Automatic annotation (TrEMBL):
This is MTH938/NDUFAF3 family protein. It comes from the Bacteria. It comes from Pelagibacterium flavum. InterPro entries: MTH938-like_sf, NDUFAF3/AAMDC. Pfam families: DUF498.
């Protein structure tokens, strides 16, 4: 099964099995485009580049912030700064935010999820896995 960005929602949180070629593999499915991973499931995300990471694009995360302790933001192939407003908004809700490369975010997300931690991730898709 393949997802296209904007199509929907997988109703369970899952580890990321692979990434690259503009998408992700999880739960025996392939998703093209960026992805938000929350305890309520996996969601297509319209962000394509670091400048697309805004309070508005993270609205789903902010609305469900009470269900996570840590949010990992995969900023693409490299680390990029996020707006202080994002960090402050989530900190006020008790969420720790880490903005790193997408590959680093996936590795940390998978470890925390395996430890049954309350973790979320917002992952910008990349072409090449590192």
């Amino acid at each position: 099964m393949t997802w296209e960005a904007g199509q929907g929602h997988y109703p369970y949180q899952a580890t990321i099995d692979a990434y690259g070629d503009g998408g992700f593999r999880f739960a025996e499915m392939s998703h093209k485009g960026s992805l938000i991973c929350l305890p309520s499931g996996m969601y297509a995300w319209e962000a394509r580049a670091a400048e697309d990471v805004t309070l508005a694009s993270l609205a789903r995360v902010i609305e469900t912030a009470d269900s996570i302790d840590v949010l990992l933001i995969g900023m693409g192939p490299d680390i990029a700064a996020i707006s202080p407003d994002i960090r402050e908004t989530l900190r006020a809700k008790g969420v720790i935010v880490e903005a790193v490369s997408t590959g680093s975010a996936i590795r940390t997300y998978n470890v925390l999820l395996a430890e049954n931690r309350a973790v979320g991730a917002a992952l910008i898709s990349v072409e090449k896995a590192r």
